Amino acid sequence: MNFHKGILSSLLCLLLSAASQEASYLYAQSKMENNKILKVPFVDFGSKGKPTLKQIDSMFDNTDIPFTEINQVNWKQYDSYHPDVRFKTAYGKEEIYIKFYVSEQCVKADYGYDFGSAPYTDSCCEFFIDPAGDGIYYNMELNCIAKGTFSGGIPGPDRKHFGNDVISQIRRYSSLGSEPFGTKTSEGKPFTYSITIALPIKLFSLSNVKPLKGRKVRANFYKCGDGMPEKHYLSWNPIDCPAPNFHTPAFFGTLYFE
Length: 258
What we know:
Helices cover 16% and strands 34% of the residues. The chain is an alpha+beta fold. The chain folds into 2 domains: 1-30; 36-257, Immunoglobulin-like (Sandwich). The strands form 3 sheets. Strands 1, 3, 7, 8, 9, 10, 14, 15 and 16 form a 9-stranded mixed sheet that branches. It has a 5-stranded antiparallel sheet with strand order 2-4-5-13-11, covered by helices on one side. It has a two-stranded antiparallel sheet with strand order 6-12.
C-alpha cells in the first residue's frame, strides 16, 4: 500500500511540475499584450549579386515600407527618458534588411570594434530572432556607429558568441560614421542618425532554417543604453518581467515574411 502511495505521489509531483511549466508558458503568452505582428516585404533588386548598402538605404527611404516604432517602456523606473526610435525592415533572397532611425539627446560610442565589445553600454539598437522556431535565437547588437556583436543559442550562459569572421559578414553602415567618439550630449536639438543593416540568413548557422517566404517567425527589436547618462530600455513587442532583460524569447513578437 505504501509502495503504491509512493508511486502515486511521484506521478502527482511530475504532473504538477509539468502543469507548472505549462502554466508559466501560458502566462508569458497571455501577457504579451496583443502580440505584435509585422509584415516583412520581399524586395527584389533585380540585379545579380547582393545589393549595395547604398541601394538598401535608398530602398528604405524611397519606398512605402512603413515605419515601426520601438516605444514600449517595460520598466517604470526608466520612463523619464526614452529616445524616438523607429525602424523599417524587408528581406531578399539571402539577407534580412533593417534600417533604424534614432533621435536622442545623448549619443555614446565608446566601442570602435566588434568581437569583445559591449555595444549595449553605448547608444545601441538590437535585433533578436528565432528563425527556425526551435528555441535557438540570435541577437545582433550594434552601437550608433554600427559596431557590435552577434550571438546564438538557447537561453542561458552557453550561447555562442560569434567571432569577427562571422560578424564581418553583417554588412552595415551608420550615418554617424565608424569611428568612436565617446559621449556627446545636446541641450537643444537632438542628435539624429540611422543604421542600415544587411544580415545574411546563412549566419543562423546553429539552426535548420527553412526559406523565410510565407513563414511566421518570432523576433523583437530593441533600443538601450546601459552605460549612458540616462539609461533606457525600449522594445517593439512588450516584455513582462521584473527587471530589464531582452533575452526573453517568450515575449518576442511575430514577423510575417511575405
